[in-house]
Amino acid sequence: MHKPSKESISTIIKVLGLLLFLYLFLLSIELMADSFKMFGNDFAVKLFTLTSNPLIGLFIGILATSLVQSSSCTTSITVGMVAAGCLPIRGAIPIIMGANIGTTVTNTLVSLAHITRPTEFKRAFAGAIIHDVFNLLSVLLFLPLESFTHYLEHTAVFLSDIFCGIGGFKAVSPLKVILSPIANLVLSGFSAIIPNPKIAGAIALVFALGLLFIALSRLVKLMKSIIVGKIERLLHEYLFAKPLRSLVLGVIITAIVQSSSAVTSLVVPLVGAGILSIEQVFPYTIGANIGTTITALLAALVTQSPAAIATAFVHLLFNLSGMMIWYPLRRVPIAIAKAITRFVTKKKYFALIYIGLMFYGIPLLLIFLTEGF
Fold first, then answer.
1. Conformational region of residue 85, where left means phi above 0, alpha means psi within -120 to 50, and beta covers everything else
2. pLDDT tens track of the chain, all 373 residues?
3. Pair 268, 107: CB distance under 8 Å
4. What is the rounded CA–CA span in Å between residue 15 and residue 226?
5. Distance CA 212, CA 360 (A)
6. In this structure, are residues 80 and 39 in contact, taking their beta carbons and an 8 Å threshold?
7. How many other C-beta atoms are found inside a 10 Å radius of the C-beta of residue 113?
8. Nearest to 341 by CA among 119, 100, 65
9. Residue 24 burial class via C-beta count within 10 angstroms: exposed 0-12, middle 13-18, buried 19 and up
């Protein structure tokens, strides 16, 4: 009888850890939705008013995601707020669009590691900001279209109705069974210690957010450690052989790792080294954008709220819409990324100005100017 190797024991421990942090992530969503409900109607009315301006919602999404460097966190929080009735689907849509832009800050920061080597930096920066450009173009096209037609909202609600109609909630009801007792216990504990429901709700929310960040970061780290070697082999030997294959595997890998920024950041050094071109990584980037929507769908299923599930579908539909427009017209985002790179590489400090303004300065300024706060 063979003893299990250290490697197999390590893998088993990692898989158990993965299951634990997946449970904690789902629990944090349950806690968050319940915490928002403790704030009362005043909070919901205030939030409804704040996000009634799509531009404010967009810049909140950009800024929040740039700060935490995870669109999964932002979209999961948004889903929780919709489930709690604090945020309408219409108000959540611009936040989700903003989260798509904000998550690209990680790639751009990774490209700065090449800044001392001009040729490498030129390639790496272009490979990084193609993600920015794709999401920016999608927002510029679909935010005005959504404001006039609400096609994302209507389609997402239609899909969530079908999903509910075929028994989608029944399929995930065991999640509610294993999450609710712990969530109720935690919230009862906060309520027992703090009699004021709003203060208790605020503390419970902070706790839920902390749990969400920790669980998601650990999930991503564990998944990367389990499959990162396999991903690297795929990148070199298989992934970029054909554009469609690159796109599909970008979806699959990101759905597993649950972090588009982590998956797309992997290719930035390869572009910098000249192993891959910006044309090769573009389909992969689009695929990563679609794959990252699995996190919001998971969060929505936990809440068992039709509105939350519709919000998660919005994220998926928005990224699919972007793919359908910009993949056939890929020369446009690629040309824009190369033009920005030519400008930035003439004066390298422009790269820092670009990051500072794009992800933090402009969103903060416009939120302030539109009197969002």
1. left
2. 455 677 777 778 887 887 888 788 778 877 877 777 776 656 655 655 666 788 888 888 888 887 776 777 788 888 888 888 888 898 899 999 999 998 888 888 888 888 888 888 888 899 999 999 999 999 999 999 999 999 999 999 998 888 776 555 554 455 667 777 888 888 888 888 888 888 888 888 888 888 877 887 777 677 767 665 566 566 656 667 788 888 888 888 888 777 777 778 778 887 887 878 899 899 999 999 999 888 888 888 777 788 888 999 999 999 999 999 999 999 999 999 999 998 888 887 788 888 888 888 878 777 777 654 4
3. yes
4. 8
5. 23
6. no
7. 14
8. 119
9. middle
Tokens (6 digits) for 3? 């003893």
Task: Indicate whether this model's pTM tops 0.70.
Answer: yes
Contact between 73 and 213 (Cβ < 8 Å)? yes
- CB neighbours (10 Å) of residue 60? 24
CA dihedral 285→286→288→294, nearest 10 degrees, is 160
Task: Please provide the DSSP assignment of 261-310 as one string.
Answer: HHHHHTTHHHHHTTSS-HHHHHHHHHHHHHHTTHHHHHHHHHHT-HHHHH
Cβ-Cβ contacts under 8 Å for 195 (sequence gap 6 or more) = none
Annotated domain spans of the chain: 25-369
Angle at the Cα of 113 from the Cα atoms of 110 and 117, rounded to 5 degrees: 135
How far is 224 from 128, CA to CA, in rounded Å?
20
